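Tutorial, part two.
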Amino acid sequence: MRAVIYSMIPAGILGLAEAARAVGLEPVAVLTPRDVRSAEDAERRAAVIAETPDDLDVCFVVDKADLVRLTAAYEPAIGLCAGYRWLLPPEVLSIPRLGVVNSHPALLPRHRGPYPFAWAIREGDAELGLTLHLMDETFDTGPVLAQGARPMPADQTIGGLVTVLRELAGELYPDALRRVLAGERGDPQRTEGATWAGPFGTDYTELDPGKARAELLRQVRAWQLMFDKSVIGPVATIDGRRLHVQDASLDEPDDPNPLRLDAADGPLWLTSVEQL
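Running the prediction step on this input gives:
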């Protein structure tokens, strides 16, 4: 049975291809958006080409409407999705007879939406979760096939979080895919505890020196994982200057003139800033 992969992340493509093969599926193609907005987009495209296994086609899709034609051309029995910026339309979801399995990095229904990493850090979640579910017509609301969690890692960069998720995916995918192959349609999501992980607003931009420095550092880390750039944050005011804080530390850096924000319980060292 053939599988198509919807992903923008090279590591995600590799993981999905391995998970498919482990249960006897044949991954045949990756359908990924062809972003052309920045140098970062170009680097991502190059990475997808370089790191995708040679036996998979790579299709860069210009328009979401093209997904119907391209998906149908591969005649897949199942779709596998992880790290995708498009909501797959019903016309695409109806093509694979077994549906499309999505990997969402949160314990659904908590942190539905596009930025679960950022909100998990913002909310101080004690665990990092992963949910595998069948996709439906709205974001992250389909029936659950498997869930798991790990303690939130100390390394809250994208690399540290993805490392933990890769371990979870290796544990969860075999059972989730076997359920689908056996004809199961998963368990309906509960409604209590549902939250939405959308873009941050202006209410979360300011680094308030009246707060504890660990809380301020968490705010910096959360913004590092907020990939929507319509609002600039976090922002600090130091000696009358407005600064976009890109990184910070609780430990004093080796710098002859380090920038510091005096928080309620001590200094937060601003290690990377941009003048506004």
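The two ends are 54 Å apart (CA to CA). In part three we will examine how such features are distributed along the chain.
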